[in-house]
Design a protein that fits this description.
The chain has 181 residues and is of the alpha+beta class. It has four helices and nine strands, in the order H-E-H-E-E-E-H-E-E-E-E-E-H. The protein has one domain.
Amino acid sequence: MTDWFQNHKLFHEEYCKGFKWQQYVADYFKSCGLESILPNTRLGDVDPLDYSSEEFKKYRDEHGYDKDAYLDEPDLIVEGEILEIKSRNLDFSCPSDYPYDTIMVESVSGWEGKIRKPSFYICVSQKTGRMIFTEGHDSLRWDRASFFDRVRRIKVYNYVSPLDMWGNIEDLVEYFNRSRE
């Protein structure tokens, strides 16, 4: 089976979808009066958002790529803190109505490959637009579990955390506001 990262069309779709949700979260924090910085979307000297998947495939074929080179790129920086954004095609509005007992935080390889660990993880419902969060420093309480990713068609070994470790996004906004005082 082909590495999903080498499937240019799928990679491009997932990259653009991920950035859409990063932008969504950034806009939310900005609307709350918080400094919110979206890091560069470029991969090397090209921005995938400026290309169709066919053009991006041509660029990647010509220039090559190293997926590990982007492992440590933050999704979003709010008030100087690194945030990782994960969107889920699930219907939820808060931790108490999340449809499972645990929430996928990040792939084990993704977490372990990061030099700068995120301070917070944001989980966004693609259906409701609601957001919940957990703290990155709680990683010692995370469990590991294997999942089959139906979109990328790969088995992924992820960190998961129990629902009691997640809070409503408004609580994170309050934390940032308090830390600015």
